[in-house]
Amino acid sequence: MFSWWKKKLRVDLGELEDERESLSSFLRTTLKVEVTSDGNNVSVDSEKLSPQELKRLVSKFIYHRRLNNEYWVALEGGAVKIKKFKGEKESEKRKKKVTPRSTIKHGW
After folding, report:
1. Using CA atoms, how far apart are residues 86 and 102, in angstroms rounded to an integer?
2. What DSSP character marks residue 11?
3. Is the pLDDT of residue 6 over 50?
4. Cβ distance 63 to 28 under 8 Å?
5. CA end-to-end span of the chain
6. CA distances from 94 to 40, 66, 87, 91, 98 (A)
7. Residue 108 and residue 102: Cα distance in Å, rounded?
8. What pLDDT does 63 receive?
9. Contact yes or no for 37/43 (Cβ under 8 A)
10. Above 60 in pLDDT, residue 24?
11. What pTM, to 2 d.p., does this model score?
12. Which residues, in sequence order, are CB contacts of 88 under 8 Å at separation 6+?
């Protein structure tokens, strides 16, 4: 009806800027509302959508794009944020433990 009645919900993409257009498209087709993207944020204009429901949809998007091993979704202050997991450094993960060779001599 009136555009000033609609709530503006915001999704902060964080390090996931490459998926901005595909997330906007997913939200637009799923919710059938106006979705705008600028910079690192995606804004959703909706009258009935709650922040929790938007968080659920963004989590669904992350899961379907198979990004859930690297990213997770949080609700902070009414805005949905996509955050990256903090893990071990790659070099520390891939180090192998070296065991010394056996020095036992067999007599057979």
Report:
1. 38
2. E
3. yes
4. no
5. 92
6. 32, 23, 13, 5, 12
7. 16
8. 92
9. yes
10. yes
11. 0.70
12. none
Q: Which two tokens stand for residue 55?
A: 């968080």
Q: Do the Cβ atoms of 80 and 74 come closer than 8 Å?
A: yes
Backbone region of residue 77 per phi and psi (left: phi > 0; alpha: psi in -120 to 50; beta: other values): left
H/E segment holding residue 90: helix 90-94
Residue 1 has pLDDT above 70, yes or no: no
Strand residue runs (E) in 2-66: 7-12, 35-38, 41-46
How many Å apart are CA 80 and CA 77, to the nearest integer? 8
Query: Which of 46, 37, 32, 40 is closest to 83 using CA atoms?
Result: 40
Does pLDDT of 4 surpass 70?
Answer: no
